[in-house]
Write a structure and sequence with these properties.
binds zinc ion; Jann2411-like fold; mainly alpha; globular; two-stranded antiparallel sheet
Amino acid sequence: MLITHDTECALGMLVDLLNTAPEACGQEELPDLPALRDYVVRQEISDVGTLDQADLDAVHALRDRLRSVFAAPSTQAAADLVNALVAAAGTTPRLTDHDGHDWHMHYFAPGAALADHIAAEGGMALGFILVADERERLRQCEAPDCARVFVDLSRNRSRRYCDSRTCGNRLHVAAYRARQRSAADAPVPVAAPAGAGR
Ligand SMILES: [Zn+2]
Ligand SMILES: [Zn+2]
């Protein structure tokens, strides 16, 4: 799959945002401006000015729209959503090597509000995934008590759980059990992986 580092970072920014929603993790993890600022710092989002309540409201609304891209029933539906997102945000592609990074493309319009910035960068990244015919990599965690999303970048698209602490552990345990099952046929015992059963 042709996915650049920048696209991967933009998708990480989206996944982080989506997973702050109550419907993803059971509580609002972006309740106020300090939490929003933490998110901006954590995701190293550049060129962000002063944030106010309107920014928080707009980011919450954007979060809902982005979630529907992950849940879209078809590529057509996802493409329509991405087109609408990107059109509303307005994009101004330009090359930059700010802050010592390698040359990369920015899509957000200069001076864009935070929600439009995220919509432009995230919408383009989602667009690249659709163009690469990789929509099935946009997943929701299969754990029964979890609705977090993730982007499955594994080679064989086999990832089923998000990397939250509970689900990541579930992942280790499932892998451990699978190894135990195959080890039952083999004479060599298999050591428990670090972290399993914690
Ligand atoms: Zn940049
Ligand atoms: Zn999960």
